[in-house]
Amino acid sequence: MYDLLILTQVSVYASKLSSKIGIPALLLFLFTGMIAGSEGIGGIYFDNHQAAKVIGDIALIFILFSGGLDTQWKRVRPILLQGTILATVGVALTMLTLGTFAWFILRSFSNFQVGFEGISWLEGLLLGAIVSSTDAAAVFSMLKSSNIKLKGNLQPLLELESGSNDPMAVLLTTTLVKLLSASTVSIADLLLNLLLQIIVGILVGYGMGIIISLDSNRLQVDLKGLYSVATIAKVLLTYGIATLCLGNGFLAVYVAGVVAGSRNFSEKERIVDFHDGLSWLMQITMFSILGLLVFPSQLLSVAGVATVIAVFLIVIARPLSVSISLALFSYDFREKGFISWVGLRGSVPIILSIIPISVGLEDATTIFNLVFFIVLISVAIQGFTLVPMAQWLGVVKAE
Questions:
Q1: How far apart are CA 27 and CA 40, in angstroms?
Q2: pTM of the prediction?
Q3: What does the pLDDT average to over 299-318?
Q4: DSSP states along 101-151
Q5: Cα 271 to the center of its chain, rounded Å
Q6: Given CB 3.0 to 4.6 Å as the disulfide criterion, which of 48, 62, 326, 331 pairs with 335?
Q7: Which residues, in sequence order, are bridge partners of residue 150?
């Protein structure tokens, strides 16, 4: 416990350093965890993947809700269709293109490196599915910390996509894990499950968003801090109800945040500020623990092939999925280029990569290490160049 508290404090100072020297805060959080881990100077041994997944899920709940609070409905409404297509079709296209390439390149690397010989096409698709969604935590924090204003509706589109594309990635990942575990899953069941998760998630989120705003008006307590505390229970309840109803809890809490954030209610500013701080605490905790979870020595064996896959994702797979998904909409090549570039990968892929380990898939550890390295490269390259790329493409709004 004391180790975690110290690690959190160190990460807070690391985030201050990131704003001064331009290093993405999320990258520093990961490195802080890795340095504090069993192979770093901290010597903290942590390899409990199940505990990491539970902590990651809780953190994502509050990160997504906070992101939803900052995403006003009047800004999201005009680009709802585009965001939905990116969050579904775009994710599937990324899985197919990246997964097929990953399978091909891993088999090619097996000629001179042990460990990749048995990688099948389905396992390649599993890797593609795991890293197919952009990470809300990464996108929200990078857009906030960069302090740039984007032209048109680019920012709400990016926030909507990153906040709502997790259901597709989760469904594709769990379905492929079932297939690889010799379970049978029909296409009809897959589509029905996806549709149910989305519909239930939206309905529960919408209803709870209204309840959160109405309840805040009716609470009427003298201790103003209790308004913020009361929302914690409602956010967790939103996730729980959606999950029990076979919906996607992450989508539900994001929608609840959007709905609540678009309404006026008592102590709204205080609640928004509280959840912004809580979101940063969750990000620090989650990324630090994920940093503890990885063993740097194991990353060296996958560094070469992971770099090739990450570059393919950034330069080809993501731009291709964006171009196809937005083909019918009036975005020019500069806007599509920036949307592609802000497709950061973060904690969600790492958390999803724990699922194959939990069910005992043969190449699960290799997939986990590949995903972790891909995320490092994505956050480093795209995070470092976010502002310069926006300026170069001319999508920054004039002050």
A1: 16
A2: 0.82
A3: 90
A4: HHHHHHHHHTTTSTT-TT--HHHHHHHHHHT-SPPHHHHHHHHHHHT--BS
A5: 23
A6: 331
A7: 396
